[in-house]
Specification:
The complex is a heterodimer of chains A (497) and B (386).
Chain A (H helix, E strand, L loop, with lengths): L9 H4 L2 H11 L5 E2 L2 H4 L16 E3 L4 H14 L2 E5 L15 E5 L6 E5 L4 E4 L5 H8 L4 E2 L12 H7 L6 H4 L6 E7 L5 E5 L10 H5 L8 E8 L1 E2 L3 E9 L2 H13 L6 E6 H11 L9 E9 L1 H17 L4 E4 L3 H12 L1 H4 L6 E4 L2 E2 L5 H15 L3 E6 L4 E8 L6 H18 L24 H14 L24 E3 L12
Parallel strand pairs in A: 2-4, 3-4
Antiparallel strand pairs in A: 1-2, 5-6, 6-10, 7-11, 8-9, 8-10, 12-14, 12-15, 13-14, 13-18, 16-19, 16-20, 17-19, 18-19
Chain B lengths: L6 H14 L2 E5 L14 E5 L6 E5 L4 E5 L4 H9 L3 E2 L20 H6 L7 H4 L6 E8 L4 E5 L11 H5 L7 E9 L1 E2 L3 E8 L3 H13 L6 E5 L5 E8 L1 H14 L7 E2 L2 H13 L9 E5 L5 H9 L5 E4 L4 E5 L4 H10 L3 E6 L2 H4 L10 H14 L18
Parallel strand pairs in B: 1-2
Antiparallel strand pairs in B: 3-4, 4-8, 5-9, 6-7, 6-8, 10-12, 10-13, 11-12, 14-16, 14-17, 15-16
Classes of the chains: A alpha+beta (497), B alpha+beta (386).
Chain lengths: 497, 386
């Protein structure tokens, strides 16, 4: 597969040994890796279609080391690619052949927990779930819950502005991060935000979150934690048409209810998931909704009854309310298994991540169906229905000549369709290298220039994570995506939904 | 004075200003004109020509409007559909001796004018989804999107919120709207000292009571007030929880609807302090609010706090260094909201950033506005030499 990354700087490559020596003076011992066999584990992230050995991997363990490494690279004109756990689905941490890969995994400590201020201060290499684990005994949790939360790091979440199934009610990472300490490309350390509300001046923290490693290297993160809701209940709803399910979602929101989670699956996705985990899903419906309410038990009971009534008014032919927490988790097990479950239908799937205005859902699914016929590839749709974030899974067989290219062409058409109906290219996976060259379908040159100048304000030499987010001038015709072959993902044990 | 009515006209005005060195002060209703140092040589760029409400579909939870659209009109429109701008934007004109009602949505966003519900629902920054604007380069550009979930490109919406018109003139904004709570009830503890009030606020916020707003007004008859929002059965359950939890602090008293409404308006509008000539707004870590206020005010009652302690308004203090030092030591910052012109001419409205952050801010402003068209001198940190 071909991907146009910035041309390697030959003068940097020629100095590889000298650079490694200089970096060893900053990060002693095993913190600098330049043997090919040891570089191999870093050659890709969760977007395994692309592989590139980094020039050198550096694993700093102190703020001073990060600052010194970046200052050295800045002075020497060496590119740097930051990396957390490497679970990005959009290639955000894809190495460059002439760049230092800066792995932040050793920054793995929780520094402070303050229940009065309701914050956790963590180093960037702490996993998303570890934050919740650290505070749950006191009845707290960290709300954003990307599906890879057992492995992905809070630093990576900041870079990608990660979401999760609960973000309609609780927000994305950006709504839950209060402050960061970060190192600029020139080695300077700055602190943005804190534990309070608004910034004093420009809200730089707001643009750093979701900047995909292009603006600085985060070395400390302060997140807001919330008291764990007293109860959670879910209801499964089946509909004869996708439009019926979509109308039900609109009516739930129209009734003033913002569920903790609201997921939709279409018939292929329902069948795959049910065959995979026996969640008890009805098989004779065209659309299945999982609606979860949380809060005081009295609130859950009250709103579940309202949701049921709305569903019945919209012709739901199936309605089942979880009676126990075990049953509620079983409802979710099917949804969470939807991605790997497609392996029963085809050896490979390609996961898309666009957002659309919800009112366009029936039309968008119909057009995805037409594209499916046109390209001759099946598709299963899962949908964060509350916020319009659509994950079509295009099913193909990479061993059949041309199918991979066909899947990619299909995927590009789906993302263009999302933009055409008023939506966006990515709801939660990020642009990375994956959707980089589709950016012009959503933004014109002037729009992109304003974003790139912001990049230059933080990193004038354009050394930090180049080749990501912004379309390259010399675009290749074909771009790769999240391809999963026979279930062989880079992190097979991490849920993806 | 410029009053463009379409984006082409606006673009021409900005390009012309960049060429001639004219400075433009972007203005909506003008209620906050007395914020920051007085400007002598800036021309007003009146954005009220961009006043249309372009698209509002309640089920999508989004509203697209001209940045000059009256805030009050938008709030009325969404309220009629049982929805709200959840960050409780408010017209700050009264803070400066004016009367509310003329404020625009663009002005509320550019000043990050968030109300008491910011505690539970986030601020202006959390509710701007996308925008169209003309930068200081005289270029029309867009960022973000028109849907509630989007991570495509840099999140410039965050950057323009609270930017006070220093990066670009907003022409259109897409804001998130949310269902309004079906019921709102407030509960008060009477007569607590600031220390005890802070302890009660901390305890409430750590509980499962899901407090939507929490504020304290000091004095002999001090009020510590908790606002619960949601469906009736939920409020009942949470009120019971809160009453038991706060028993050590006294008897939690349900407030009459009218009294509660008046209390929250007065907290939001800082009504008790608007006659003072100097008014500060401190953002601090929430648990530090009462301590910071008392360190600065002693036993005086020239202050109040919102956001469970995270927002402190203090009237009358004229020692800027003292106020800013106290805010910084607590981990926050202080904004000089109102002061006589002579004070505003020497004390920056916004707490100065560290050298490193200030450099990045200057670079960011220069990226959007290299000629300094929107640099009016209001913030006493001009990014161009003059």
């Amino acid at each position: 597969m071909s991907l146009k990354l910035p041309d390697p700087d030959e003068s940097v490559l020629a100095r590889r040994a000298e650079i490694a020596t200089a970096l060893r003076a900053i990060v002693p011992g095993e913190g600098v890796i330049n043997k090919e066999a040891e570089l191999r584990p870093y050659e890709s992230d969760g977007l395994t279609a692309y592989r590139q050995l980094p020039m050198i991997v550096v694993l700093p363990s102190t703020l001073q080391q990060v600052s010194d490494v970046l200052a050295y690279c800045y002075a020497e004109g060496i590119r740097v690619v930051p990396r957390g756990a490497g679970t990005s689905l959009s290639g955000g941490a894809l190495p460059l052949s002439d760049a230092v890969l800066l792995g932040m995994g050793k920054f793995n400590r929780i520094l402070e927990i303050d229940y009065d201020d309701r914050v956790v201060v963590a180093q960037p290499g702490v996993t998303n779930l570890a934050i919740t684990r650290a505070v749950e005994h006191e009845g707290f949790y960290y709300a954003p819950d990307p599906s890879s939360q057992i492995a992905c790091t809070i630093g990576g979440n900041v870079a990608e502005n990660s979401g999760g199934v609960h973000c309609l009610k609780y927000g994305l990472t950006t709504n839950n991060v209060l402050g960061v300490e970060m190192v600029l490309m020139n080695g300077e350390v700055i602190r943005l935000g804190g534990r309070q509300g608004d910034a004093a001046g420009l809200d730089l923290l707001g643009v750093v979150v979701g900047s995909e490693g292009l603006l600085g290297v985060v070395t400390e993160v302060t997140v807001r934690i919330l008291p764990t809701p007293a109860a959670a209940r879910a209801v499964l709803l089946g509909f004869e048409t996708v439009a019926g399910g979509g109308k039900c979602v609109a009516d739930i929101i129209g009734a003033g209810i913002i569920p903790a989670g609201m997921e939709m699956m279409d018939k292929p996705a329902i069948h795959c998931a049910e065959a995979f985990v026996n969640a008890g899903y009805p098989l004779d419906v065209e659309a299945l909704l999982i609606v979860e309410l949380d809060g005081p038990g009295a609130e859950c009971d009250h709103l579940i009854a309202e949701v049921e009534a709305i569903a019945r008014a919209n012709g739901a032919r199936y309605c089942r309310v979880s009676q126990t927490d075990e049953e509620r988790l079983k409802f979710w097990a099917g949804r969470k298994a939807a991605f790997p479950a497609t392996g029963r239908l085809a050896p490979d799937y390609y996961c898309m991540d666009g957002t659309i205005p919800r009112r366009r859902l029936p039309e968008v699914l119909a057009r995805i169906g037409e594209l499916s016929t046109h390209y001759g590839l099946a598709v299963a749709n899962v949908f964060h229905a509350g916020d319009g974030n659509l994950h079509p899974l295009i099913l193909y067989d990479a061993n059949k000549p041309g199918q991979l290219d066909t899947a990619e062409a299909f995927g590009n058409d789906v993302l263009r369709l999302c933009v055409e109906v008023g939506g966006v290219l990515t709801g939660e996976h990020g642009v990375g290298v994956e959707k980089r060259d589709l950016m012009p379908t959503m933004f014109n040159d002037v729009d992109l220039a304003h974003q790139e100048r912001l990049k230059a304000a933080f990193d004038p030499a354009m050394l930090l994570n180049p080749g990501k987010v912004f379309p390259s001038l010399h675009r290749c015709a074909e771009m790769g995506r999240v391809h999963v072959h026979h279930g062989q993902t880079r992190f097979p044990d991490i849920p993806r939904f | 004075m410029h009053a463009p009515t379409d984006i082409r006209e606006l673009t021409e005005i900005v390009i012309e200003a960049a060429a001639t060195g004219e400075r433009l002060e972007i203005r909506g209703g003008g209620g906050k004109a007395a914020f920051g140092c007085d400007r002598e040589d800036a021309s007003v760029l009146d954005m009220r020509g961009f006043a249309s409400i372009i698209d509002y579909d309640p089920a999508e939870l989004t509203l697209l409007a001209g940045a000059g659209a009256p805030l009050a009109e938008i709030q009325k429109l969404v309220a009629a559909q049982g929805q709200m701008l959840a960050f409780e934007p408010w017209d700050q004109a009264a803070l400066f001796g004016g009367s509310a009602g003329a404020g625009t949505i663009g002005g509320a966003l550019a000043a990050s004018a968030s109300g008491p519900r910011r505690l539970s629902r986030g601020g202006a920054r959390d509710h701007l989804l996308g925008f169209e604007a003309v930068s200081g380069r005289g270029e029309r550009f867009s960022a973000g999107g028109n849907v509630v979930k989007n991570v495509t490109g840099f999140d410039l919406s965050k950057l323009v919120c609270g930017s006070w018109g220093r990066l670009a003139a907003l022409t259109q904004v897409t804001v998130k709207v949310l269902p309004a709570p079906r019921a709102i009830e407030s509960f008060a503890l009477d007569g607590l000292s600031p220390e005890l009030a802070q302890a009660a606020l901390n305890a409430a916020m750590k509980s499962q009571a899901e407090v939507a707003a929490a504020a304290f007004a000091p004095g002999a008859k001090s009020l510590t007030v908790f606002r619960l929002e949601g469906v009736e059965p939920s409020i009942r359950a949470r009120a019971t929880l809160l009453t038991g939890l706060l028993e050590p602090f006294g008897k939690l008293r349900p407030m009459e609807t009218l009294d509660a409404g008046a209390f929250w308006s007065s907290i939001r509008d800082v009504a008790a302090l608007t006659s003072a000539s100097i008014l500060w707004r401190l953002h601090v870590p929430p648990s530090r609010g009462a301590a910071v206020a008392q360190a600065l005010c002693g036993a005086e009652t020239n202050w109040l706090m919102d956001w469970a302690g995270g927002l402190v308004w203090i009237a009358g203090l004229d020692d800027a260094a003292l106020v800013r030092d106290a805010a910084a030591r607590a981990g926050g910052h202080a904004t000089l909201v109102r002061a006589p012109a002579a004070v505003r001419a020497s004390v920056p409205a916004l707490q100065p950033a560290s050298a490193g952050v200030a450099r990045v801010e200057r670079a960011v402003r220069a990226a959007f506005d290299p000629a300094g068209v929107f640099e009016t001198g209001r913030f006493l940190d001009m990014s161009r030499a003059d």
